[in-house]
Amino acid sequence: MRALTYYVGMSLDGYIAAPDGSADFFPVTRAVLDFIAAEYPETLPSHVRAHLGVTAPGSRFDTVVMGRATYAPALQAGITSPYAHLRQYVASTTLPAGSDPQVTVVPDPLGLVRRLKQEDGAGIWLAGGGRLAGALLDEIDELVIKRYPVVVGAGIPAIAADHATALPFEITDERTLVGGGTVTTHTRARA
């Protein structure tokens, strides 16, 4: 069975974006970019991969699932297929289908993820956002959190669920990057 990995950057106080959805306060340093290029190259948008000289296809993920707000910055920049090297799904009930043949808009992210997990392939990357992560919380198998050394104070939480749930995860890897950021991998503890 394929795993769903929520790979996300967040502040020390648990926010993935400011209240307006912006994330320009994250200090994306050379160390962070080098880490991503080496360990998670498929999570770099297609146009950024070329700019950074990243040619490695990556082997962790072959599919990305993102929320409408996560997809919006690409659309605002005129990019309709930000991860052309992956199968792309956008969870939305408001976006029209068919804006790009490489991007599938789905109104039911839970059904989508459950179906994708049954297919053969590499991992499924949950790119965000917080409400989508909350809706898919029971399906998340792994959390990979890039924690940036910054406090935001308010914003969009990493996980915004409609109900309180205590799901156990175990730390399976942790790294400190130059500049004080950390990357921690948490794997779902299953009984």
TrEMBL record:
Pfam families linked to this entry: RibD_C (PF01872)
Location of the Bacterial bifunctional deaminase-reductase C-terminal domain: 4-155
Protein name as catalogued: Dihydrofolate reductase
InterPro entries: DHFR-like_dom_sf, RibDG_C, Riboflavin_Biosynth_HTPR
GO molecular function (one): 5-amino-6-(5-phosphoribosylamino)uracil reductase activity
Organism from which the protein derives: Geodermatophilus poikilotrophus
GO biological process: riboflavin biosynthetic process
